[in-house]
Amino acid sequence: MEIDKYAIWDQVFEGANFNDSKWRQLSHDFIKAVHQFLIFESVKQNKFKSNNLLLTLLAREEFTSIYNSSISSAEKDFEKFNSLSSEFFYEKFDFEKNIYEIKNYEVNMEVESNIRRIHENLDLFYLTEKLKQLVNIVTRRNFLNTNLDIPLEKEVIDIINAYNLLEHPGIEIYYKFYRLKSSDSEHDYYELKNKIYERIHLFFLEDAVDVLKEIINYCSLKINLGKIGYAEDALNFYKFGLKNNYIFPNNKFNPGDFLNIVIYGIRTKEFTWTENFIEEYQKIIPTNQRKTLVTFSLARLYFNQSKYDEVIEKLRDVEFDEITYNLDSKVLLLATYYEVNESQAMMSLADSFRTFLTRHEKDITADKKQRYTNFIKFIKKLSRAKYQDKKAKQKLLEEINKTPGVVNQGWLVSKAKSL
User: Fold this and answer.
1) What pLDDT does residue 68 have?
2) 342: alpha, beta or left, given left = phi > 0 and alpha = psi -120 to 50?
3) What span, in angstroms and rounded, lies between the C-alpha atoms of 349 and 215?
4) Distance between CA 176 and CA 135 in Å, rounded?
5) CB-based contacts of 387: which residues, under 8 Å, 6+ apart?
6) Which residues of the chain fall short of a pLDDT of 70?
7) pLDDT reported for residue 414
């Protein structure tokens, strides 16, 4: 967004000559004020942090007359909004520390203090947060296929086991995530799955969103490895998340989640539900993305319902701004022309698609270009193989199967088998 500083100056200082040095100072002061406002709003929205800041100030200024009412108010908030999130335990630790200061337990040694609760909440904060971060570490290890050495990792896991800390529900969830990603045990998965459904509402929203995202990502990984049964679990997690505001929290849109929901709805053949989802949730898609996502999602849905005329109607004269949608929509349209025996249209699109790939070589990797080129090559061979003998058809099937890196390879194989 371009800012016309001269127009703004005229609005504020009507008739005055523009002063660049004054403009820079005012801009600096304005940005500083915005930062302070954002900090204030953030603290105001966090009841626990607000209460703790107040108690810290009361202790510092020795406003003894309102200690008790402020402490009582803070205690009620902690009881009302009890959580499994690490941030909750940090704020509870800070609260107990403030109580210790306010009641002067450092001096009044003979009085029973809250020092045990200080340490309990500090430990729960550290162990919960440490496990949460270790889950991220294991994810990176698996993705990068490398060993990242993290201080105290083994020691923390040993402490959790030695002191039966898995009895704490938040620690148990992150621990099971850690084990699942480290050893990939189906037993751990099904246990974790049940625990998430039971306890996710006890996390702060941001943590609940992350927990659900982690388990969905795990399902997606298994699906990509050929374990299609996880698609139903992934879709159920998404449905649960939609119902409880964990997928698009406060209408914060994520195109990846939108497309995944459509894909898993199709894979599980929940076509009516998927179409209703597209219709209902398109309203939260940013305007500049809406037409692309809705058109592409409906086209993919219609293809899997064998509504080939609707696919052609959606995609025939559409060019998407985003290169990935452009590529995948052309694959979808090619497959549709094949299904309806529109050989001439299919061959024409295949040739123009190949030209498109060459023209956009700078926009896509060589590996990606090859995967789409392979698809074009095989769909053209499939079209010709309809008129060839059984031996040629079998040879084509074997070639498709053994070629690495082919877009929509499963569909190509199924078509080759049905020749």
Assistant:
1) 86
2) beta
3) 39
4) 9
5) none
6) 1
7) 94
CA distance 409 to 51: 58
pLDDT at 1: 59
Other Cβ atoms within 10 Å of 151 Cβ, number = 7
Q: At what angle do helices 287-304 and 308-315 cross, to 10 degrees?
A: 150
CA angle (328, 329, 333) in 5-degree steps = 120
Cβ contact 135:178 at 8 Å: yes
Spatial distance between the Cα atoms of 190 and 174, rounded to a whole number of angstroms:
14
pTM attached to this predicted model: 0.86
Q: What are 419's two structure tokens?
A: 């020749």
Q: How far is CA 382 from CA 128, 162, 322, 397, 415, in A?
A: 55, 61, 29, 9, 8
Burial class (CB in 10 A: 0-12, 13-18, 19+), 370: middle
Residue spans of alpha helices (H) in 1-85: 5-12, 20-44, 47-61, 67-80
Helix ranges (H only) for 248-365 are 255-267, 271-281, 287-304, 308-315, 323-339, 343-359
Q: What is the pLDDT of residues 141-190, one digit of tens each?
A: 988 888 888 999 999 999 999 999 999 999 999 999 999 999 888 889 99
pLDDT score for 143: 83
pLDDT for 223 equals 92
Only one residue has tokens 């293809």, namely: 303
Which of 225, 239, 135, 229 is closest to 190 using CA atoms? Answer: 229
C-alpha 339, offset from chain centre: 35
